[in-house]
Amino acid sequence: AQEKKIFMVQGPYPIIRHLLRARGWVERKLPSVGRQLEQHRGDQNKHRLKMRPRNGAGGQGEALLNPCGGAQPFLETTDPLHYPWPPTEEEEEKEEEECDEDPSGMHDLMSYLVRNRLPNFIWTNFLEATDHELLQKDHVVNHYARVDAFTTKEGLCLSLQNLPWIEQADPNTFFPRCYRLGTADEQEAFIEDFRLTAARSLLKLALEEAGDRPVRTKQLPNSAKGAGESLISHPKHSTAQEGSPLYPELVEEALEVCKQHLGVLRHQDIDRGTPSPCRTCIDWDRFLQQYYRVAHEGAELVLTRQQRKQCQHLLRLLAEQLPQLGMEGKLNVWILKPGAESQGRGIVCTARLEEVLQLARGFTATSVHVGRWVVQKYVERLLTIFGTKFDIRQWFVVTDWKPLTVWFYQDCYLRFCSWPFSLCHLERARHLCNVSVQKWCKTSPDQDPRVPPDKIWSNKQFQEYLAQLGQADAWHQVLVPGMKAAILNALRSAQDQVGFRKGSFELYGADFLVGEDCQPWLLEINSCPTMRPSSAVTRQLCANVQRDTLRLVLDRKNNPSCSIGAFELIYKE
Q1: Do 253 and 287 touch, CB atoms closer than 8 A?
Q2: Which of 378, 394, 409 is the last residue of a domain?
Q3: Rounded Cα gap, residues 336 and 160, in angstroms
Q4: Which pTM was predicted?
Q5: Which domain CATH number covers 430?
Q6: What is the pLDDT of residues 129-138, one digit of tens each?
Q7: DSSP class of 477
Q8: Which of 39, 85, 233, 479 could lock onto 422 through a cystine, CB 3.0 to 4.6 A?
Q9: Residue 418's domain spans which residues?
Q10: What's the rounded Cα separation, in Å, for the pair 160 and 444?
């Protein structure tokens, strides 16, 4: 019936608007006054959204739907009526919907006629504090409440820490270890992790130099065809000061720390009451300064034959206990992120403990709660394409939380950096693949010309590249199963915290890095993935995923056998 086909679109989604109108739906447009107020007050309201406590909606703004027209002000505020539009990937540009073509004024007229009716379908940027009394059971909304439990960096970090208590799964096999610096216990755990990683890294560096062999980095056997260079840049600079040799106990201390840590990992310390390896008598400040000289300044290590054997044996045993030992590399690089930001805002890479702690204390960004920072291990041994870092944006939809029902989109895209990958240089242009970051970066003259100018590839192009490397099966046998498992584990870890509502659904965008072995590493999950195309590839894919999402959540209700495009049901409890 026509009365059941009223929709509202808030944000830059012209494709959604076009597809719904083609189905015979009538749009209830936002009042123009709301748009004007947003232009003048937008920054203030965005700031308020980010500063609100986690009060049940995860800091994701939802305009309270008002059947008399417009939106109600947020609870506990005295702001005039407005529509909160948190920043999109292209917030500095004018919204497409303002340029909506309606030369005859027909859509405006139809909107006026339904101005006092509640929309039956709502597609908006963010939701906060939904007034469920105003939503009928058959109304469809494209967000759930309290999804910050897995769609913020801080929330995902905390939820995945609890995963082993919920599922028989280890987050360390798919999510780089992560700590919330605003929590005293986790900051202490990070400091200990940094020190232990430095000790393991020192052993790796020592083995490289054993026998005075030239330092080389590991390379995939069949990567030469595409990358044309080592996957990990040479870690050293020749800046070590002559006349200041490393103290001779350095390797022995690293070996002893790693032995103690192995004992802890094997639970051999339960009866002995062995203290943490990082609380022994080692002078950690001195140890780290010496490690920095080896890792970053080219200071040389000398190993005895016995020490070399010990290093090899110990690292083999640690690899059996630590799923991330292979990907963590040798330079102990970590990435510091605001806990509730997106689009690469505020992210910094560093390889020194004191810098992490100083940055976490020193940041005064008004958009972030004090202390709400996470620090995560950087994936140093990653797969590059033509010597350039990339990540994968993978879509999926949740149509129900009870029972949990998850649909995986079989098409996705890759995002490239603008500068060649190097761990010697930690600029954002080399290490952050976000389109919102890279669009401001001038392409390096050292960039391989085979990197696409628009810095985007489809998954089909990536599969062709893998085939050229002799890894034709990696996409379907390693990458896709790994991404599906990571997504499901993240959702299950946060399932009990999400605000469930029948009739809602949500489209998410998960970001993955790819290790040297083609294993995917989950970085984050976005609750409002951009649908603004930045390339020919994303123009087609973004249009397709919006079309198929509407098929999934609308058309399938009346016709369960209808086409749902590239969506695949991967889980239903």
Answers
A1: yes
A2: 378
A3: 18
A4: 0.82
A5: 3.30.470.20
A6: 345 555 667 7
A7: I
A8: 233
A9: 147-175+381-572
A10: 37
